[in-house]
Amino acid sequence: MKPPIIDSSPIISLAVIGRLEVLEELYSHFCLPVQVFEELQFHLTRHISNAKDLIEALKPRVLILKNALQSERTAPHPGLGERACLVLALETGITNLLIRDKHAKTYAEQQGWFCFGTMALLLSAKKQGLMLELRPYFETFAASGRFYTSQLLNHVLSLAGEQLL
Amino acid sequence: MSDAIKHECGLAYIRLRKPIEHYLSNYGTVMYGVNKLYLLMEKQHNRGQDGAGIAAVKLNPANGNPFLWRNRSINNQPIADLFAQVGQAVGEIEKYQPDILQHPHVAKGHLPFLGELLLGHLRYGTQGKNKVDFCHPFVKRDYHHSRNLALAGNFNLVNTEELFDLVNMNPGEFQKQSDLAAMMEVVHHFLVKEDEQTPGNPSLANVLRKATPLFDGGYHFGGLLGNGTSFVMRDANGIRPSYYYIHDDFVVAASERAAIRTTFNVGENEVLELMPGCALLVQADGSYAIEQILEPRERRACSFERIYFSRGNDEKIYRERITLGHKLSKPVLEAINYDLRNTIVSYIPNTAEVAYFGMVKGMEEYLNHIKVQRIMSWGADFDEEKLSEMINRKIRQEKIAIKDVKMRTFITEDVSRQDMVQHVYDITYGTLRSNEDTLVVIDDSIVRGTTLRESIIRMLGRLKPKKIIVVSSAPQIRYPDCYGIDMSKLGDFIAFQAAIELLKERDQRAMLTDLYRECKELQRTSQLHTRNVVREVYAPFEPQEISDKIAEMITTPGLGIPVQVIYQTIEDLHASCPTNTGDWYFTGNYPTPGGNRVCNKAFMNYMEGKNVRGY
User: Fold this and answer.
1) Closest CA in chain A for residue B140
2) Tens of pLDDT along B100-156?
3) Which parts of chain B register pLDDT below 70?
């Protein structure tokens, strides 16, 4: 898979389970727009103890939009981070997006781009042997108050061949 | 109030019934719920300043988003601290997305506490240490959305150990010290069972019907579930207060009616009392119901709420405090032998002020009656001067006592320390005629009598009144509380100390040992809850005898001024506060079995020299 553009939510989820390095291992050239980076600085410092190190590690991945002003017309979305991901895709021609937001996904799919989410990424990580089991990470999601429907978690666990919740 | 009994906790609950964008378009801000929660808590800050906590649940979260937020603080100004943190988060996000508050969905996704279900708590710790970990709400997280639970309340349970046993849980050190931890385990235990029956949509009413009969205590508690349902519930005796208000856009509940009225600018009769044993249940779709969860028992709403705890700006509480004071005017008039010319009346700031107004009203009524009688008796025999002198007779009122800021006891040497402690209160000089005027001061209650003895009486004595009369708008506090007020040690109460002194004087001390033995026996046979043994300590004495002994005990040595104490009678308390008949701290008549046990335990602790709570 080509290196994707990544929105903040999947990065936060990986940071919460302490496995942000999986991104690097799966997609050595992933990138994120500066607007997502700004969001991350806010959210990571609230959720993660070693946020500073993670923010430093993400810095080299940050791309600045060439024409941020046109973004609202090009990719209408009220969320600045999501909008920036869509505009970055337009500007760079990168058509893989690791993005969760429903509206952003609809827009991207209308453009013929490929969107996937955190669960697909975790399944890939397991397939490639980067994670032995997903269930313990789901426990961490629950403990940290991140929402995933139990149906979704059980679906992923069944795909991963693990015991359901 | 002179003796600082620490306040009990307060609860604030708000459920927004419309999507967040509705509040932006109709109330001008997406922060409507959070702003109102802040106000609702601030308007109840009288109920606890040891700490505060808030929780929020966001409805319909997207996968990957946090949906249940909780923050707690034991900062000096905990409510302000919590909401400053909320404001700080908004400020930080606005730095990179300045218009975020104009986009409700984006704001909801990013901003902590921008949820539809909001729960706030003000803490005074009657149990557990003053650490942030003990602050409510407690949160239990789970994979299953509907099993996530945030819980907070104004309560005290006296059977926490039993509760842990009932759910087969071996509590850790932290849990042992928290009755909310026990409550949480029990509620969550039944929540999981109910969720197994109806996955994703457990019936909260069923959960509460199974959990709450196990609680022994007084409680008003609220909970938020991850699936968007929520509740507020009150104990079967209605010991702790609970009020709610329903609006098309929101449902609100709180410990005090006036707090809801002020926060939402609504009328007296729009805010309803949640009746004993009832729960206010709000579903994920915003519909609500009031359900009788427990059979209501004899109503025993805490009378101390009316005397002192709740804010006096509540319409009914204000009237009741006026009546409490009014009822005392007659015994005061008798005590001063109706000599109003040589009597100054005043109050101990600040909460006794309303009862003071009532007492003065009662005295004015007497004075006006006398004026009319005198004038009538004159017939035509009067002139302008005589009439003017008569109608200008007034109750002599002065602002005598002034409460200063808390004195820091930086001096450890006993003598100097005592000298500092007396300055907690100050007096207004030149307000009375030395050795001529009797000084009457009213206070809400006399718990330990320490401040009266060490500060107030000493300070009042400097004015050299002919006599000092201390009036208490509450009856004698004789028994410990175990339902949320921090009055748990028997030996602390001046009324108990007075009874002990009287027993000693009358050579009846052996009775204490007999009663202690009886308690031990009751404990051995697990019958400690069946009888309030401590009543026997007071049985040999008339209330007046105890009052007189208290007067003696609060008199500063060497004062040289007679001191008298007048207490409210139990009958007049009930006549003044007819809906709040809970009077166990005055009568020993506890509404739940655990009350007798705690009271007897407190007596055993006293006899064994243990300075610990009886629960």
Assistant:
1) A143
2) 999 998 899 889 999 999 999 998 765 556 789 889 999 999 989 999 999 999 988
3) 1-8, 125-129, 405-422, 615
Residues near B227 by Cβ (< 8 Å), separated by ≥ 6? B145, B146, B148, B200, B201, B284
Cα B504 from chain centre: 34
Q: Do A145 and B93 touch (CB under 8 A)?
A: no
Contacts of B319 (CB under 8 A, 6+ apart): none
CB contact under 8 A, A80 and B96: yes
Q: Are B257 and B311 in contact (CB under 8 A)?
A: no
Alpha-carbon gap: A42 to the closest alpha carbon of chain B (Å): 7
Task: Kindly list the distances between the CA atom of residue A18 and the CA atoms of A5, A32, A148, B143, B398, in Å, as whole numbers in the listed order.
Answer: 20, 19, 18, 19, 68
DSSP H helices, B97-144, are 104-110
CB B598 within 8 A of CB B534: no
Could you tell me the pTM of the whole model?
0.91
Q: DSSP assignment of B49-60, as one string? A: -SEEEEEEE-SS
Nearest by CB: B63 against A46, A80, A148 = A148
CB-based burial of residue B332 (10 Å sphere; 0-12 exposed, 13-18 middle, 19+ buried)? buried
Question: Which of A151, A150, A118 shows the shortest CA–CA distance to A4?
Answer: A118
**Residue found by looking up tokens 């002192």 in the block:** B308
pLDDT for B154-179, tens place per residue? 988 888 888 988 888 888 888 878 88
